Amino acid sequence: MEHLLGQDWEITPAGGATGEAFFAKKDNEMLFLKRNSSPFLAVLSAEGIVPKLIWTKRMENGDVITAQQCLIGREFKPREMAQERAAKLLRKIHESRPLLTMLMRLGKTPYEPIEMVKDIESKLDADLLQLNIVKKVITFLKKEIPNIKCDEWAVCHGDVNHNNWLLSDDNELYLIDWDGAMIADPALDLGLLLHWYIPKEDWDVWLKQYGLNLTKHLELRMKWYTLAQTLQSIQWLKSKDRMDEVEFWMDFISGMEFN
């Protein structure tokens, strides 16, 4: 990275699962660099979903380096997820035709419920599959597949944790970390956000800010995707030996109501 920017830049790892992200600092200027980002990043930037893309450069070895504006700001706080601007930004993402078109050009296809259940059953380890609560969730997911119908597919983030929402010092809100982007039912993002952050008595108000009415069908879809994604997260956390978090999410699904 140093030879790309010059010796005057201080470059440090930015963390993350891939190890491909870095911060570059020179005087009062700071950039967020990433190796081999998806072309999807350019569309996210153009749509104002992520901080501005400054430049893209191809290295001699074929790697592509992107540089984004590195903003001064902070993560959204859990209680702030109830704010209208969170609902409005998520709606903007789900309605974006440029985002959907780009993911389709990159070969993405809708992540259908039946495919999601197959992934869960194939990827959960034997110990998890033997747990009664996991068996109950999988039975529920299979039974409800015919009822999880989506009228219009959208680009979904897949991890709407408050840590991925960035509020800049200029009061601009962004949703970052798009490595898990997919084409799916918008209820996938909505379900996680509402189940994690919004008291159930406030769901109707939040969804009206987003632009939807709370219906029994939407509630079922949100519950379905929340349970499915939580099982996937539990397996990932277990593979990382993060057992305290595994226990937390086991308690979470155990506390949900489903038949």
Automatic annotation (TrEMBL):
Gene3D superfamilies according to UniProt: 3.90.1200.10
**UniProt domain Aminoglycoside phosphotransferase: residue ranges:** 14-211
Q: Which InterPro entries match?
A: Aminoglycoside_PTrfase, CcrZ_PhaseVar_Mediator, Kinase-like_dom_sf
PANTHER family xrefs: CELL CYCLE REGULATOR CCRZ, PHOSPHOTRANSFERASE YTMP-RELATED
- Protein's recorded name: Phosphotransferase family protein
